[in-house]
Amino acid sequence: MALQYLAQSFATVLTPINIGVLLLSTFAGLIMGMLPGLSATMAVALLTGLTYSLSPTSAIISLIGVYVGSISGGCQAAVLLNIPGTPASAATALDGFPLANQGKGGLAIFLCTTASCIGTLISVLCVLTLTPLLTKLSLQFGSWEFFLLSLFGVIICGNLTSKGSAIKGWISGILGLLIAQVGLDQLDAFPRFSYGNVNIMAGLALIPIMIGLFGFPEIIKAFKKTEEHVLKMSPFKMREGFSIIKNHTMALIRSSLIGVGVGIIPGVGEDVGGWLSYWATKSSSKHPENFGKGEMAGMVSAEAVNNSCIGGAIIPILSLAVPGSAPAAVLLAAFMMHGYRPGPLLMNESPEFLYQVCVDLFLAAIAMWLLAQIVAKFSVKILGVKKELLMPVIYVLCIVGSFVINHITFDVKVMFLFGIVGFFLAWAEYPAAPFLLGVILGSMTDSNLRRALTISNGSFMPMLQRPLSILFIVAIVCLILSQFGVFNKLKRKKTAKTA
């Protein structure tokens, strides 16, 4: 029966009209993912309205195509400009941009898109085979686990992005968590730190903050009177790229599985997955000191995980009608708009829908890879443009990208404000990535902690009685102690005793 459903799904998608819809929507997703400010959530949301007049099958194909394309497209801006096209590409920029400075921008983009394609394909297998197991695991997460997971993500990001001083990374992440508290309280709808300003009461939009933190420092640096450094692009052969991918097979598989696991947890999404995968790859590397300097393993891992999160985020949609990420939430609404009812009864009411989604994901990954190679031939030429000419264009895109989110000038002001914050963070050598992740996870951290304390009447004891919570606490403590050399001292003492 499963093979029959798969054959029917392939036959449905591989019609001229649906192939055209898939290619066009995936291309649109790539372009929107490349442009700073146009996130995957926005891309799926914009296309949802446009698909209203399409048939349900074509609509689902186009939505999944734009989802896959936009998550993958963010890597091109991250590699070429050090400005993540989407928050999911923030970890990619750590090693992608140094590679571009070494003249390997084309190779870096090829590796990113290939890793994204492989990550998506692995997630398709997980959607088909591991849905019951992963759904059961996600049900074990309560408020305490979500709170600790968000702290874990901020600490990991601080460890990875700070150059020699993890404390600076943690301070940056905590500042981001504090900024996320601005606006209406999610539990009681009480305005916090808004001071009567209606715009602030609605909270500070993520995309203008992201654009300001990452875009402005690059624009300012481009006009500083420094030594002239001309970026050169060295040609590469696809055979070389595939050889590098082959050498990082284990990192790709590990990262893809991390992505599926993170994606299935409701509310976490691709952003956390990128940092978890980067941390796992760096921790298992024989040369962790190379990360942040153009290490291909780190970049490949970050890109494999954010696209594999797509499949992971779709699993709870299909089985529980609970989205795993913000773009997945929009996708769930689109499914319902087109007459599908995801949830526990889906396999009884319309079992073919699972196989249609998997086939759409599979073909969207292939289409994304093919189109990305074409797009890269043009986008990589950015390396040959003088920054003094390029940055005014980026400046305009930063303003437009901030404005189109809510169509209010206040978001442009937010972008300017956090552009100044980003500049001073860079000047003081505080990493911006933990700050951004703190803003992303702040709402989840606050609401889950307060919800858990409300249920327990203010007691932290239930947190110490849950196995998953204890696992996260141990991991957090170990991460903190490792930065103070505790384990190295213990290891030296042990070696001295045996000697």
Helices and strands, with pairings:
Elements: H1 2-13, H2 16-34, H3 40-50, H4 56-81, H5 90-101, H6 105-129, H7 131-138, H8 143-161, H9 166-179, E1 183-184, E2 191-192, H10 198-201, H11 206-222, H12 238-247, H13 249-264, H14 270-284, H15 296-320, H16 326-337, H17 346-349, H18 352-379, H19 387-406, H20 409-427, H21 432-455, H22 467-483, H23 486-498
Antiparallel strand pairs: 1-2
Please provide a written account of the structure:
- This protein is an all-alpha fold.
- The chain contains 23 helices and 2 strands.
- It has a two-stranded antiparallel sheet with strand order 1-2.
- A hairpin with a 6-residue loop joins strand 1 and strand 2.
- The longest helix has 28 residues, at 352-379.
- It is globular.
Give a quick rundown of the structure:
The chain is mostly helical and 499 residues long. Helix content is 74%, strand content 1%.
Describe the sheet with the most strands: 2 strands, antiparallel
Order of helices and strands: HHHHHHHHHEEHHHHHHHHHHHHHH
The total count of strands amounts to 2
Q: What value does the average pLDDT take?
A: 80
| Structural class estimated from helices and strands | mainly alpha
N/C terminus separation = 65 Å
List the strand order in the largest sheet: 1-2
